[in-house]
Amino acid sequence: MIGLISATAAGAAARDRLAAAWPDRTRVYDGPVGDAVRRAFAECEQLVCFLATGAVVRLVAPLLSDKTSDPGVVCVDEAGRFAVPVVGGHAGGANELALAVGELLGAQPVVTTATDAVGIPGLDTLGLPVEGDVAGVTRALLDGEPVALAAEVAWPLPPVPFAERGSYTVRLTDRAVAPASGEVLLRPPSLVVGVGASRGAPVDEVLDLVEGVLREAGLSVRSLAELATVDAKADEPGIVEAARRLGVPVVTYSAEELAGVEVPNPSDAPLAAVGTPSVAEAAALIGGGELLVPKRKSERADGRPAMATCAVVRRPARGRLAVVGLGPGARDLLTPRAKAELRRASVLVGLDQYVDQIRDLLRPGTRILESGLGAEEERARTAVEEARRGQSVALIGSGDAGVYAMASPALAEASDDIDVVGVPGVTAALAAGAILGAPLGHDHVSISLSDLHTPWEVIERRVRAAAEADIVVTFYNPRSRGRDWQLPKALSILAEHREPTTPVGVVRNASRPDGTARLTTLTELDPAWVDMMTVVTVGNTATRNIAGRMVTPRGYRWQENSPESSREGSQEGAL
Ligand code: SAH
């Protein structure tokens, strides 16, 4: 029995939700809180207290005797945001109870018993159909007991701290097997069934064929990803309805595309009807993979000609490469999406200093491949290789990973057999801009002054173009020990078109603990202030220093009261 104790109206409301959901397992203890906790502690195997953790600790402390016999106690705060196992995490089942309570109330379970118990994804939250002993294997993972992964199919799973061997197993399989005891089956969407059908083919004929073929081949229908066919059959009711009942989409290809796929069993009938010698096999095989069941025809009880064909392919695993910008440094400038991607990746690739920046966020079981400065191409190649092996990979970069960073070398390596997800980050120019004021209020460019990979002539041509076009410029990689003349040269080019008093912002280590910012002018800037941790933003001819802030007006006519400017203004303001 689970004893429920609350002190306030908000607590009582959450308590009642729990009591309503688990009527046979819970008992509400009313009356003064201290008494209620004592009675529940004596009578129940578990307690959920809708009270502050401190209060519960004080009430429960004198009652504790032995962790094998004490009840498990979970605390839920009044706002229902957290479910905290306070005592009896393992033996008392409080960890598991906190997960269940958390799920029911939408509260975050705060499990603190073992480091390897923190942040393990629920097996039923991996986005794959799951069967078997989910509760037992989850508890084993939470308790730090060895759980082995048996992957028959490569699939980009999030990190789970799997052991080499264990009495518990997570089996990643598309085969129609039943889970053994202590085993969880995860069903990757690895099967594609190609379907051909004559006009008017009955849905039952299509469905019986697909299900029957999977069954005979020993494959699980829960791993079915899609039905694939030719464009001309996109609206064929028997196929559409079969897919609906199977809970998968219908994916179609043109006859031309299908005709280009090499298949074992081409025939003349579909060639005449829809213009390709194969529909079922070609549509199943078009994304590559292994043909598990060649073309099969439906069987009709009435002996009339078959109206449907199908073929089954196990498609190659599609790995996932997330290219994640970490922002300029401060933790609260790391986006929630970036954080989620870091926790989703089972392989993390990055520069060692950036890995250090986010190491605490990674889940147990994450494989970290870090390398030093200069190994960009190797990092890019490693990340792509891991993704092609079917892993879930995060490739990290500071600021935005697409700005003078890892995204382009990685995507230059990547073929279309992996999924790529980009997560934008706050790039240095924006982080610095926010510190300086509003320097980027009108057209602006970023220019890297590093002539390591770009000839200086090209850089100079771009600086000159920005100078002539009166565009605000942010210089990245402005100056290093071995590269000191480029910044003065670039500033002198801008000075040919801008006043000596043009505001210039120099921001070093934006958003980091030792960050500094100066607002100076084109002629007063001392290059000694500038290093590789710095960006330099040069205003345009309208940029002003207003009350110590760098402000670039949004346009010369912005303040004018012409109908055009006010119309434009209101539209843009709405953005
Ligand atoms: N991808 C990064 C830029 C990498 S290039 C981004 O989007 O920000 C490296 C250059 O970025 C550095 O030489 C420096 O000019 C600039 N930079 C990166 N982080 C910075 C920070 N926190 N403060 C100031 N400049 C920074």
UniProtKB/TrEMBL annotation:
UniProt-listed SUPFAM superfamilies: CbiG N-terminal domain-like, CobE/GbiG C-terminal domain-like, Tetrapyrrole methylase
Root EC class: transferase
Gene3D superfamilies on file: 3.40.50.11220, Cobalt-precorrin-4 Transmethylase, Domain 1 (3.40.1010.10), CobE/GbiG C-terminal domain (3.30.420.180), Methyltransferase, Cobalt-precorrin-4 Transmethylase, Domain 2 (3.30.950.10)
The EC number(s) this enzyme carries: 2.1.1.131
Alphabetized UniProt keyword annotations: Cobalamin biosynthesis, Methyltransferase, S-adenosyl-L-methionine, Transferase
Start and end residues of each Cobalamin synthesis G N-terminal domain: 36-116
Residue ranges, annotated region (Disordered): 554-575
Alphabetical list of Pfam families matching this protein: CbiG_C, CbiG_N, TP_methylase
Domain CobE/GbiG C-terminal positions: 191-312
InterPro entries recorded: 4pyrrol_Mease, 4pyrrol_Methylase_sf, 4pyrrole_Mease_sub1, 4pyrrole_Mease_sub2, CbiG_N, Cbl_synth_CobJ/CibH_dom, CobE/GbiG_C, CobE/GbiG_C_sf
Known pathway: Cofactor biosynthesis; adenosylcobalamin biosynthesis
MF annotations from Gene Ontology: precorrin-3B C17-methyltransferase activity
Name of the protein in question: Precorrin-3B C(17)-methyltransferase
Organism: Streptomyces asoensis
Record gene name: cobJ
